[in-house]
Amino acid sequence: MIVAEVNFDGLIGPTHNYAGLSLGNKASTAHAGAPSYPRQAALQGLKKMKCLMDLGLTQGVFLPPLRPVTSLLHYLGYKGNDKEILTKAALEDRPLFNTLCSASAMWAANAATVIAASDSGDGRIHFITANLSTMLHRSLEAETTCQQLNRIFSDSCYFAVHRALPYGQHFSDEGAANHMRLTPSHKESGLNIFVYGEKGSGPYPERQNRRASQAVARLSSLPFDKNYFIPQKAEAIAKGAFHNDVVAVANEYVLLAHAEAFEDQDVWLDRMAQHVEGFIPLIIDSISLEQAIKSYLFNSQIVTLPDNQMAIILPREVKADPAVWQVVETIIKGNNPISQAIVVDVHESMANGGGPACLRLRVPLSKKALAAVDQRYILNEERWGQLCCLVEEFWPERLLPDDLINPDLWKTAVKAHWALINWLG
C-alpha cells in the first residue's frame, strides 16, 4: 500500500477583499480597507497548485462557496429577494454585510482536521469539519465545507466525514491549522499533535479549544498513545500567531518550529523524539516571533517528493528579511531531508494573513483511497488550465471596500459560481 499526501487547495473566490474581520490576525488588520485584487489572488493560488503538480505531486482543489451569503439574512428576519435584503443589510449593518462577503474559505487548512487511516480506530480517513466559531464570518463556512467534503470523500469504505462540533467558544475548532502529524513515513502510524490556546492568556481570542481537539481525537477513535495536546505559547498568540501553523509545521518525521511556539517546548520535543523514529526537530531561535509572523516562514509547506527528498514551499515575503532568508539557506544546507526551497507568490493571501500552508488541506491517501476520491476535484494540466481561464473571465480585477455593496459585483459572483459548477460537471 503506497500512501502519499495530497494537498487540496482552496480556490480564492471572486469577493476576495480586505475587510479586517479577523481579530488577532495582524496582517488582516493592517490591510483593512485596502484595495484587493481577486483575479490576481486566485491566479496566484492556482500557480502555487501548479508548482506542486510540476514537482510530481497529486494536487486537489476545493471550490469557494457562493458569496455574498444570504441565508443568514433570511435567518435574521430580512424579507425580500436576495438583492433587496443585501441592499438593506449594506445600509443598516455594514460590518454584518462585510461578513457575508468574506472569501475566507480560501484557507483550506481551516476546513477540517484530517486523521490518517493508519492512525484512526477503524482504518478510514476521518475528516472532522471545523466549526470556526470564534469568528462569525468564518463560522458561516462550516455547513458548505461539510457538504463539499461529503461530495469529494463520499466512499464510506475509505472516508468518514463528520459535521462540525457544537458552536461556541467551549468547542471552538479551527481545523488542521492547529494539528500536526509526525510519522516515519506517510504510510505508517503516526503521532497526532493538537495545539490549543490557554483560555484568557492574552489580548486575542484563543481560537482552538483543548476540548475541541479532544473531541476530534474521540470522533476518529485515536488510540490514547497517538495523541499529544500541547498548549501554544501565549506570547506567540499575543504577537499574532493566531494559529499554530504560523509558528510550526511538520512533515513526516521533520518538525520546523520557532523556539517560542509551545509552552514547555523542550519537554514536548523530548516526548516527540521518544515516540517518532528518526525525528528531526528544526527549532529556530535566530529570528524573533515578530519576524516569523511577518514573513510567515513557518506557514510554509514541507512536502515529500517522489524521490523521498523534501521541499519547502515558501512565500516570497521570506526574502524581504535577510535574517529569515538566512534561516532558509541554513535549513537547505543542513543535515536534514529538505533539499530545496521553492518561493511562491501568494501576496494577496498573505495580506489577509494566509501563507502557502493556510491555502491547503493535507490528506494522506493510499492508491485505492485516491481512486475513491471524486476525481473532478483532482487537477491535471487541462483542468488546471480551465480554472485559470474561468478566473480570467469572471473574477474582478480590483475591489475597494465600497465595491462590495455594488449589485453588479453580486451578479458577477453568481456567474463565477455557476461557471465553477459547470466546470465541475
Q: Would you kindly provide a written description of the structure presented here, covering whatever features stand out?
A:
There is one protein chain. By secondary structure, this protein is α/β, with parallel strands linked by helices. The protein contains 16 helices and 15 strands. The chain has a three-stranded mixed β-sheet with strand order 2-1-15. It starts with a strand and ends with a helix.
What is the averaged pLDDT score? Answer: 96
| Helical segment count | 16
Structural class, from secondary structure content? Answer: alpha/beta
Please give the oligomerization state of what you see: single chain
Strand adjacency order, main sheet = 2-1-15
The Rg value, from CA coordinates, equals: 20 Å
- What is the general shape? globular
Distance between the termini: 31 Å
Low-confidence regions? none
* Helical content (DSSP H or I, runs of 4+): 25-40%
Could you tell me the CATH topology label.
Answer: L-arginine/glycine Amidinotransferase, Chain A
CATH superfamily: Succinylarginine dihydrolase
Organism: Zymomonas mobilis subsp. pomaceae (strain ATCC 29192 / DSM 22645 / JCM 10191 / CCUG 17912 / NBRC 13757 / NCIMB 11200 / NRRL B-4491 / Barker I)
Pfam families: AstB
Subunit structure: Homodimer.
Pathway: Amino-acid degradation; L-arginine degradation via AST pathway; L-glutamate and succinate from L-arginine: step 2/5
Secondary-structure blueprint of this entry?
Blueprint: E1 3-10, H1 26-30, H2 38-54, E2 59-62, H3 71-75, H4 82-92, H5 94-100, E3 112-115, E4 125-129, H6 136-139, H7 142-152, E5 159-162, E6 179-182, E7 191-196, H8 210-219, E8 227-231, H9 234-238, E9 248-251, E10 254-258, H10 265-275, E11 280-284, H11 289-295, E12 301-304, E13 310-315, H12 322-333, E14 338-344, H13 347-350, E15 360-366, H14 367-372, H15 381-394, H16 407-424
Parallel strand pairs: 1-2, 4-5, 7-8, 10-11, 13-14
Antiparallel strand pairs: 1-15, 3-4, 6-7, 9-10, 12-13
Helix pairs in contact: 2-15, 4-5, 15-16
Pfam families: AstB (PF04996)
GO biological process, one term: L-arginine catabolic process to L-glutamate
InterPro entries: AstB_sf, SuccinylArg_d-Hdrlase_AstB
